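Exercise 7b. Backbone tokens:
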């Protein structure tokens, strides 16, 4: 694997650092397009398969594939080496975060008189989708910046990718069932297969073939950065199209994004606080604690966006709601990195002279 210096491990590209700015810019471009070049329902239907707008389907697939290249099956064999931080992260991702999301739905969306019945339903599902999908990509970058335990980072992200395949649909079904929100099981399963299963399969196959034919160095230094750039372009293109098709609705109802942002942000803060506290109580050292906090508080916004579009359509309130997960996650994750560094200096976690073990090159080109 590629060895990098300490400073390289702490850096993030200019583009990634200001991703929230580019997201806001693309939202603005999409809204302007909606006013200047309006799109009709007939236009959408002509380029759709079911509820999937074909250009968006392609973009969503390109968003997901690079993340699947990070799966390292060999690292999963090390689960028993230091299981405590791994177990704490899994508990946060699959028990704490989803039910905090459900609590936020009950507090801020269900019964909200300022929202229609359909808006409450779709925004509630958006929050549930975001809280039920732990991240498998950008957390590698945040872990590098925070100087956390990179072995744990890779193990957790690889494990998350596998558990999402089996846990995502049941968790979403459970939480929506508790809220008595009817969902289309068939669409949920199909979207999970198309936007998680297929990219994972393609990622595993292409990774093995490319490493065997071109070498690991070329794969890590050339191929992954390239598909990472394609991925971020696909993400931003998706945002432009989403807000292009929903611009008029958003202009008429700007409060929708505010209504969904409140439970998303408060849910983030509660989960982050929980993870900071639990890593302190369980006496984790900083390198393990910060990775647990970062991954345990993360959200896989790509999967949430893809699922919302598959279930409700490209022009849905649910699709708009999930984009707010993307909008807020980047500044929140950066804040966690800097908060972790501050708490380390203050001696909040047990001190450790641990030098992070380098597993592979950090994803400076936004390997989603």
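Sequence design result:
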């Amino acid at each position: 694997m590629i060895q990098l210096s300490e400073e390289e491990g702490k850096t993030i590209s200019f583009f990634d650092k200001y991703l929230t700015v580019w997201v806001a810019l693309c939202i603005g471009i999409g809204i302007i397009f909606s006013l200047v070049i309006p799109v009709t329902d007939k236009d959408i239907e002509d380029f759709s398969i079911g509820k999937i707008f074909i250009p968006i389907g392609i973009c969503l697939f390109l968003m997901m594939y690079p993340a699947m290249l990070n799966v390292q099956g060999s690292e999963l064999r090390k689960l028993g080496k230091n299981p405590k931080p791994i177990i704490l992260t899994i508990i946060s991702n699959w028990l704490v975060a989803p039910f905090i999301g459900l609590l936020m739905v009950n507090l801020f969306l269900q019964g909200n008189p300022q929202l229609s019945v359909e808006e409450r339903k779709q925004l509630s599902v958006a929050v549930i989708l975001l809280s039920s999908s732990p991240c498998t990509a950008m957390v590698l970058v945040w872990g590098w910046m925070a100087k956390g335990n990179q072995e744990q980072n890779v193990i957790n992200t690889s494990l998350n990718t596998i558990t999402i395949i089996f846990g995502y649909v049941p968790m979403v079904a459970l939480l929506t069932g508790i809220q008595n929100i009817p969902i289309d099981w068939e669409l949920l399963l199909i979207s999970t297969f198309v936007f998680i299963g297929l990219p994972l399969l393609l990622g595993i196959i292409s990774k093995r073939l490319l490493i065997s034919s071109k070498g690991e160095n070329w794969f890590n230094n050339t191929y992954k950065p390239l598909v990472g750039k394609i991925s971020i372009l696909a993400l931003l293109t998706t945002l432009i199209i989403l807000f292009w098709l929903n611009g008029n609705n958003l202009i008429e109802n700007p409060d929708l994004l505010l209504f969904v942002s409140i439970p998303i942000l408060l849910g983030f803060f509660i989960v982050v606080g929980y993870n900071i506290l639990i890593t302190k109580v369980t006496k984790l050292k900083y390198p393990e604690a910060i990775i647990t906090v970062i991954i345990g508080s993360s959200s896989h916004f790509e999967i949430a966006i893809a699922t919302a579009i598959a279930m409700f359509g490209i022009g849905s309130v649910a699709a708009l709601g999930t984009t707010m997960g993307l909008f807020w996650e980047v500044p929140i994750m950066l804040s966690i990195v800097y908060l972790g560094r501050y708490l380390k200096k203050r001696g909040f976690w047990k001190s450790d002279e641990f030098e992070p073990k380098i597993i592979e090159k950090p994803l400076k080109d936004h390997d989603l």
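Instructor comment: The two ends are 20 Å apart (CA to CA). Confidence is low (pLDDT under 50) at residues 1-10, 354-368.
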